[in-house]
Amino acid sequence: MRVERYPARSLAADYARAAAGIALCGALLGLAAPARAVAVAAAAAGALFLLYFARTVCRQLTCVAWDETGIRVRGPLGAEIRWAELRAMRLRYYSTRGDREGGWMQLRLQDSSRTVRIDSDLPGFADLARAAAAAAARSGVELDAASAANLRALEAAP
Amino acid sequence: MLAYTVRRVLVMFLTLAVISFITFVIIQLPPGDYLSNQIAELQSQGDKAALERAAFLRKQYGLDKPFLEQYAIWVGIWPGERGFSGLLQGDWGWSFEHDMPVWEVVRERLLLSFVLNFSVIVFTWAVAFPIGVYAATHQYSWGDHGLTLIGYLGLATPNFLLALVLMYFANVQFGLSIGGLMDPEYLDQPWSWAKVGSVLSHLWIPVIVIGTSGTAAMIRRLRANLLDELQKQYVVTARAKGVPELRLLVKYPLRMALNPFIADLGNLLPSLISGSAIVSVVLSLQTEGPMLLDALRSQDQYLAGSFLMFLALLTVVGVFLSDLALAALDPRIRLTGRAAK
């Protein structure tokens, strides 16, 4: 069984982003007495950054383990999915750059009732995606075009 | 999507901050300002009351303060004479040329600008979309060649020339007044059905003039994108499996061919407010474009700066929304064979 946690460096970057956003929105709302439209936008953005902060805390407390039988995520949003019960798989790629380089991937696995989301920051992500793709192929789970293309790019297609 | 949205919001904040600074630097670059010129003129005429008012405005808007302080007051992150009172607080400043708040000047022209530019966008999409799809699905047919020729004519015709020709044609054939978005008697009148009718009767000229080149360009791009998609293996496979042509076209190739246009949606928001300034000048339209040109010419710094910042905000928000749409519709990596980090 392979067990991995999100690395401190990626967590620190996420905390920094959340803190920067919360500080910016807080300063705007608290110090500058903005117009109503600006205040609403800043409050919405602030809520988004708070959510992101909570998500980062969850990621810090999360431990992902997988083997040939399935995947177990221990932590605040923990879940366990057996490969044999895999019902859906999605692999998404996101990048904020215009040339779409330097991005990250997110793997979403679902059985009949639970969903697991894993980001590509996790060490061994390609191996996990490979195992999930193989399980999806065995179970006859159909992948959408974007997931199939991303799997090929990750060299994780079965 | 949460991580993506958060990162994009941070990028958006940073972009707006940089744009606001650059905008302020640019509008401050020419020597002097509107009030300095006015004061010099009034001094030569000896108008004391107007001089006092100019001095009051100079103090009120911090024009006598250092550059960075002026910038911070303008944005609203530093208190001026009236406390925090800048863009963030909804105070766009004072238009010295129009002698009224900037927002009032902009608001007067906002509705007509929106109606005109929205009509242009609808015209562009309504004409270009079916033609582009037809040209791609009937490649090298007589129809494709004919539409391509018309497209090139649209691209090659200067807008201002088309504007002059159409104005003459509309005046001679339909008796419409030359230029403007309504008959002269409705200018400065409150809105009525007769005024709406007059606007609608004049609207088609600027819509065709402004929309022609955009329509031609969109036809060419849609045709090229769709042809690329139609030649891919999945289309050949689907066709071999007997998927009906229309369903095959709509389900994947058309969606994929539209992705570049979704990416362009970001530019739609600002163009809704301020599209085609030159054509608006030629056609004497009461829209935002000519107002911005006048403000830049006369160094009406708050009108020019605040309006440019408004356009920048619309652009950045538009790009943000189109990026979110693209991330949701097409979350694929482009670099085949290269792993994510």
Task: Please explain how this structure is put together.
- The complex is a heterodimer of chains A (158) and B (341).
- By secondary structure, chain A is an alpha+beta fold.
- Chain A folds into two domains: 2-60; 67-153, no CATH class.
- Helices cover 46% and strands 23% of the residues of chain A.
- Chain A is built from four helices and seven strands; from the N terminus they run βααββββββαα.
- Chain A has helices at residues 8-31, 36-60, 125-139, 145-153, and strands at 2-5, 63-66, 70-74, 79-82, 88-94, 104-110, 115-119.
- In chain A, the strands form two sheets. Chain A has a four-stranded antiparallel β-sheet with strand order 1-2-3-4, with no helix packed on it. Chain A has a three-stranded antiparallel β-sheet with strand order 5-6-7.
- In chain A, helix 1 packs antiparallel against helix 2 (36-60).
- Chain A starts with a strand and ends in a 5-residue tail after the last helix.
- Chain B has 341 residues and is mostly helical.
- Chain B has a domain at 108-293: Orthogonal Bundle (MetI-like fold).
- Chain B contains 14 helices and two strands, in the order ααααββαααααααααα.
- Chain B has helices at residues 2-28, 34-45, 48-60, 67-75, 102-137, 142-156, 159-174, 193-230, 233-240, 245-251, 253-273, 277-282, 288-297, 301-329; strands spanning 94-95, 100-101.
- In chain B, strands 1-2 form a two-stranded antiparallel ribbon.
- In chain B, a hairpin with a 4-residue loop joins strand 1 (94-95) and strand 2.
- In chain B, helix 1 (2-28) runs antiparallel to helix 14 (301-329).
- The two termini of chain B are 17 Å apart.
- The chains are: A alpha+beta (158), B mainly alpha (341).
- Chains A and B meet through helix 1, helix 2, strand 5, strand 6 and helix 4 of A and helix 1 of B.
